[in-house]
Every structure is written in C-alpha cells, then in structure tokens.
From TrEMBL:
Protein's recorded name: Tetratricopeptide repeat protein
Superkingdom, natural source: Bacteria
Compositionally biased tracts (Basic and acidic residues): 245-255, 268-278
Keyword Repeat set for record: yes
Listed Pfam families: TPR_8
Keywords assigned by UniProt, alphabetized: Repeat, TPR repeat
Residue span of region Disordered: 245-284
Source organism (scientific name): Prevotella koreensis
InterPro entries in the cross-refs: TPR-like_helical_dom_sf (IPR011990), TPR_rpt (IPR019734), Ycf3 (IPR050498)
Length: 284
C-alpha cells in the first residue's frame, strides 16, 4: 500500500502517524464501549474501558463517565479524585462541585463536602439546591445554626422547596426548637401530607410534645404508606413501651426483625442509585 501511494504520488504515513491513528481508533472504541457498558449497568467493564481510554487521552467527557461508573461501583474516593481533575478542567461547572459534594456526603467527609459547596458558591451564590447541600455539610459538621440559615435562604429563593422545609424542620426538632419545627411541619402537611418523611417528622414532633396517642396514630399512617418502614415501627414501639404497652412494643419490634435485613440492603442500593442520578456535570 505504501509502495502504491509512493508510485501514484500519495504520501505514505510515518510510523508516528500510524501510531497516532491507532490510538485515536482505540480511544474511540474504548470510550464508546465504556459508555454503553455504563448505560447497560455493567459498571465493572465500564471502569475497565474508560480507564484504558483515559490512559490514551485525557478527555473530560470520558473522565465524567468514569466518575459515574466508579460511584456505581462504590469506589467513592477514586470517583472524587476524578471529579477533582474535572473541576480543574471546568472550574465554572457548578454541577461538578455538586457531584463532589454528593460523593463527599456518601463518604461522610463533611469538610470536603463543605469545601466543594464553597467553590460552587463562587460560581452561583443563589442556587437553592446548593444551599441545601451546604446545609447537609453543616449538619454533618455539627453546625446546625448555619445549616438552618442555609435552608432558610434556600426556601427564600424557592418558596416551594419541600426538601429544604423537611431538613430544616428535622434540624430544628433535633435542636429542641419545637415551635419553629412545628411551623415547617405544618407547611409540609399542607403541601405534602402523604410523604413518608413528612409524616415521620410530624410523628416525632408529637412525641417530643408529649402527645403519645397522636404520635402513634401518625406512625400508623407511615406504615400504611410504607409497610417496610423500620423507623416507623421502631419509634412507635418506643412510644408504646413508654405508655406501658409491652405487647404492642414487642409486636412492632418483631416486625422490625422480620423486615430489617431485606430493607437495609434495598435502602443502600436505592441511596447509591439516587446519588448517582443526582448530578451529572455534562448533562448526559
């Protein structure tokens, strides 16, 4: 072929050019296969393909796919390292910082989470979802005052931000501020009365106020919505025991023992899947 090219005036490729063409081909194949494997749920193969692709070429899109695959695999530290590199390439991409914050949250590294949120704030200081993430970091660091402030700002920016109302209500209740927690609980019941977490907040609030019968009734509503709610059964059992209902306590705890292993495994998978979906820097 090279002889024919030379004979008819075509320029033969040098070994360096042929090597470059081969690398481009290999990179494209590995990137495509890795992306397809990720979409199909074969994360181990995705990690393998995408890692080899990055060995050939430093490509932000490929690194993003790899970070997603690593999160799915539970290799959070490596995922975070790749996200750090992405943030250096795309310093104004707020979704990268938010993904970093989510990964830090899963690792329970709240300092790193707060740092990612602070960097994101330099890009957009008025994003409600970012305020929510920062509040989660503050709660992890034990700084509930700043957490409440961040959640209040998030709500001011988005008046229907139910998740922010819920987290603020939970935080206020944990701090013993029943009055303000009740205001958030009332708003949530008005707008999201059939949500399990909203009912749990209300049940805990009634328990904290000493209204055992109301709390037990609301825990029952939680169980009607989710018959596998370990929290509802466990907390209702405690209230029943405090009321002298040993049989009711034992019945609820027996139910907890029956459903606990299955629910714990499913809950871990659900949380990992949700965190994977939460933020995607490149919008794929």
């Amino acid at each position: 072929m090279n002889f024919l090219k030379a004979l008819f005036g075509g320029k033969a490729k040098t070994p360096e050019e042929e090597k470059k063409d081969s690398e481009v081909h290999d990179f494209n194949v590995l990137k495509y296969d890795g992306k397809q494997a990720l979409v199909q749920g074969d994360t181990k193969f995705a990690v393998k393909c995408l890692t080899h692709a990055l060995d050939i070429k430093d490509d932000p899109e490929t690194r993003d796919y790899l970070s997603q695959a690593l999160i799915r695999e539970g290799d959070l530290l490596k995922a975070y390292e790749h996200l750090q590199k992405l943030s250096e390439t795309e310093p104004d991409n707020i979704k990268i910082y938010m993904r970093m914050a989510n990964v830090s949250f899963m690792m329970e590294d709240y300092n790193a989470m707060a740092n990612s949120c602070e960097k994101a704030l330099l890009v957009d200081k008025d994003m409600p979802e970012l305020m929510y993430l920062y509040a989660q970091a503050c709660i992890g660091l034990g700084d509930t005052s700043n957490a409440v402030a961040m959640l209040t700002k998030a709500i001011n920016l988005r008046e229907d931000y139910g998740d922010a109302y819920l987290l603020r209500g939970e935080t206020l209740l944990e701090d013993g501020n029943l009055k303000d927690a009740e205001e958030d609980a009332e708003w949530l019941m008005e707008h999201h009365a059939d949500i399990e977490e909203v009912l749990l907040l209300n049940a805990r609030l009634e328990k904290a106020k000493g209204n055992a019968d109301k709390a037990i009734k609301i825990y029952g509503r939680v169980i009607d919505i989710n018959p596998f709610s370990i929290e509802a059964y466990t907390e209702r059992a405690t209230v029943k025991l405090e009321q002298g209902d040993q049989a009711g306590h034992d019945e609820d705890m027996q139910k907890v023992n029956e459903i606990s292993p299955e629910v714990n495994e499913e809950d871990i998978e659900r949380k990992m899947e949700q965190k994977y979906k939460d933020n995607n820097p490149y919008g794929f």
